[in-house]
Design brief:
By secondary structure, this protein is an alpha/beta fold. The protein is built from 16 helices and seven strands. α4 links the parallel β2 and β3. α13 crosses α16.
Length: 359
Amino acid sequence: MARCRNCLLPDKVPGANLDASGVCAFCRKHGTVARSDNDPARQAREADLENTLRSCKGSGRYDALVCLSGGKDSIYLLHRAKVDYGLNVLAFTTDVNIPDVAWDNIRRTVAKLEVDHLVYRPPAALYRKLFRHLLMNQEARGAVYTVSYVYAPLFEGDALTVALEKNIPLVLAGYSPGQPEPERMVYEFSRELICATDWTPPALHKARVLDASERNRFWNPHRYPPGTVFPRYLAPFHAWRYDQDDIMKQVVSLGLVRNQTHASPIHSNYPINWLLMYSDLLNFGYNPYAPEFSALVREGKANRAYWRLMGPFVDFMIRRKLFLGRNVTAHLDWLGLTADDLRITLPKGAYDPPVGRCE
């Protein structure tokens, strides 16, 4: 497919509008490189983050809980929190669909940094039932959006629950700029979302796919007594200057990750994501992660040469179900689905939780 010659955005992405010279509308508006390092909003976030990380020290047994998925960003975040800021951190992993590469990264990092590590292993049957239903009943934005924005709130809620139980005032997540959707988080989950909103997706509740105990897996602050002080949940890479290529090099040079292959987001990605990308390629004709990585390339935060080669290769693996793309077949089999079952049946926002007010 045609892609923007500057940022590599596929022409099938809504709003791409490649011109005769092969440049997309976003590059025409913002330029090839539009780094946000000097953006006042980013600088304000960075100032808040610096103050928060320094003021939380000594607040309890642990200063912060760091969500550790085994990808380069969460690995580097844990290093910075422990080494650069001297925080007493608890690394926390929800063990669902984490690949062997990521587990190798996790073990090496935890041992190297000598931090406490808590692993929570929820019942696999819950996730099989959940993934199967979501893929057969996707909302209008497709499989990656539908599954990610039901799946992620589960392990985000796990982190909040553990932090609250252990009296940890701060949760840190390794989301890169552009993750998650800006309407859900830019740097910090709002206090409304954390302290006044039931995260149970409305469409799941209506479909009665999960029983009451399974629905209780979603974060719901109303289960706690009045006056409960909830932790903050921050994404530091939304505040710090971000360079994807540099982080990949850093985690290897620091001895936290075995090699550049293990540092690559392609190899440390959740295996089910290959099936989600396959579904969206079928339904939309482009990889759903392309806009995110194109934005990083456009802003000088990701290596253009790397993604110029790897973007098409990833799509090739997915479509042909080869190499890492074999995860497509493996997860179709695990869920008892066929390609024809990967359907969009619901309107945009069907799984989005309602917005609460923080009293």
